[in-house]
Design a protein that fits this description.
The complex is a heterodimer of chains A (205) and B (280).
Chain A (H helix, E strand, L loop, with lengths): L1 H21 L3 H38 L5 H20 L7 H32 L5 H16 L2 H6 L2 H11 L1 H25 L10
Helix pairs in contact in A: 1-2, 2-3, 5-7, 7-8
Chain B lengths: L1 H8 L3 H17 L10 H12 L6 E6 L5 H18 L3 E5 L5 H14 L8 E6 L4 H7 L20 H5 L8 E6 L3 H10 L6 E5 L4 H9 L6 E3 H12 L4 H25 L2 H13 L1
Parallel strand pairs in B: 1-2, 1-4, 2-3, 4-5, 5-6
Helix pairs in contact in B: 2-11, 4-5, 4-10, 10-11
The chains are: A mainly alpha (205), B alpha/beta (280).
Chain lengths: 205, 280
């Protein structure tokens, strides 16, 4: 019975949203907007639940002194500090919250992402080896695209940009289109299966 | 000789990291000022904004977080600068929770520079959960899902939303994204609401969105740091992306150099294989 109610709610909501796409009526749009607002509200609660879940999970790791509990302790302290500053104290451009965000979170996250360049350099050196025809094709394409994507490539060899753009616009794009169309058809099929009740994994079964 | 080839094939990781660090940092200290040409994709966005009538509202969505600031923030600054310079009303929001303060800093500085009035000429709506669902609701109204902006002001009294009450009233939008948000702006914002759009994406996402330029669903695209540097050049305000282009050029050269070294180390192997085949 519980599954049936969930299935009926999902089916009706899905059909309304689908119909509103095709029917240009203010009534359909109003119903769709109502449903959309519910989703936004549920999403807001999702953030709250996610935050609480992270907090409880890491508090548990700290209290049980499991491996790496020190990292969890840092996470818990800063989660509480940032939440307290953001909710109860000055959130404005000159407040402590913004100072911590600009001078601690921003550079740390950017640094983590920048590490990728080092891993890419090391991995390229080890992996891009001429072992067979396919690996050679990959290597040559990668080198041309890398050189053709930066000003130094254009200065060294003017045609590198043209060849690089051809690689991106023709063979690469052909593969991208195949992936896009494949995933779009898969999405339509999954959507229909969910609306018709054939796909029920979202019910937790 | 064999030892040299072996060494070339097994360079230590620290050496690669050191060379890359030098490749990035040296051009930042002593710029090379390499010439930069503007791609058609960046020029198309510039031309589109230039061609908009004076009363056209533009939306710029800041869909990136601090991890992508080096690539995406220069794009955001250059685009917002162009819109404000042209005197077009500018609406900003984000689908990423940490981003509203980043947008606020940029808009406050540019607003002062171009003497634009908050709430009338530009607004930062901040973050709201929902992604594509939020976009659907914006088709009816800005103020219903965003009753207050990022600064806590009521949106229903703002002049900008009286003139442009919903998404459909926009003349152009640009999504500056490091994730998949561009997809739902194409699906809903462009296809359903008919608002012309472009995107600014990290370099890794360029191939993914090229298909939409060919199909005409995207007016243009700013791709990675180079796209940002191109736009800085177009608006005549060189910034961090322009400075970073020399460093990125050298980083690419260092990586290509190491790839070539790794393959040079294989020459003795290829030689012996070729000789074995010849003996057979």
């Amino acid at each position: 019975m519980r599954d049936l109610i969930a299935f009926i709610i999902c089916g009706i909501s899905g059909i309304i949203i689908l119909a509103a796409f095709f029917i240009n009526s203010s009534g359909a749009v109003a119903v769709q907007d109502g449903l959309d607002n519910w989703i936004i509200i549920i999403g807001g609660f999702g953030f709250l639940m996610g935050g609480l879940s992270v907090l409880l999970n890491h508090l548990g790791r700290v209290s049980s002194r499991s491996e790496g509990w020190q990292y969890s302790a840092v996470l818990v302290v800063f989660l509480i500090v940032m939440a307290t500053l953001g909710i109860f104290f000055d959130y404005g451009p000159n407040g402590t919250f913004q100072w911590l965000f600009k001078n601690v979170q921003n550079p740390m996250q950017a640094t983590m992402f920048a590490f990728l360049a080092f891993y890419v350099a090391s991995a390229s050196y080890r992996a891009f080896r001429v072992k067979n025809v396919m690996a050679t094709l990959l290597l040559v394409s990668a080198v041309i695209v890398m050189i053709g994507s930066v000003p130094v490539g254009e200065s060294m060899w003017a045609k590198s940009t043209v060849i690089s753009q051809w690689i991106l616009n023709v063979p690469s794009l052909a593969a991208q289109r195949a992936l896009l169309i494949g995933s779009a058809l898969g999405l339509v099929a999954t959507g229909l299966k969910t609306l018709l009740g054939i796909e029920r994994s979202w019910l937790g079964r | 000789m064999q030892k040299l080839f072996d060494k070339l094939g097994t360079l230590p990781r620290w050496f690669i990291y050191l060379m890359l660090s030098l490749g990035v940092s040296v051009p930042l200290i002593w710029p090379l000022n390499l010439p930069l040409s503007v791609s058609s994709n960046s020029k198309a966005i510039y031309d589109k904004i230039e061609s908009l009538p004076d009363s056209s509202a533009v939306l710029i969505c800041f869909d990136f977080d601090p991890t992508s600031i080096p690539e995406c923030q220069p794009m955001a600054i250059a685009l917002c600068r162009h819109v404000m310079k042209r005197g077009l009303p500018l609406i900003v929001y984000t689908n990423y929770p940490p981003t509203p303060p980043i947008a606020d800093r940029i808009l406050t500085e540019l607003g002062k520079e171009y003497n634009r009035k908050y709430g009338t000429d530009y607004v930062n709506l901040g973050f709201k959960t929902g992604n594509d669902v939020l976009l659907l609701t914006l088709g009816s109204s800005w103020t219903a899902p965003f009753p207050q902006d990022h600064r806590g002001f009521n949106t229903d009294t703002m002049t900008i939303f009286k003139r442009y009450p919903n998404y459909k009233k926009l003349s152009f939008m640009v999504d500056i994204a490091h994730g998949a948000t561009v997809d739902f702006f194409i699906n809903i914002g462009h296809s359903q609401f008919g608002v012309p759009m472009a995107c600014g994406v990290t370099a890794v996402s360029i191939p993914q969105y090229k298909a939409y330029i060919q199909s005409g669903q995207l007016v243009g695209m700013l791709g990675g740091l180079k796209g940002a540097a191109e736009y800085e050049k177009l608006v005549g305000a060189p910034g961090k992306a322009t400075i970073g282009m020399d460093a990125q050029s050298m980083a690419h050269l260092v990586i290509v150099g190491f790839v070539l070294l790794g393959n040079i180390a294989l020459i003795p192997k290829w030689w012996s294989r070729w000789r074995q085949k010849g003996n057979r």
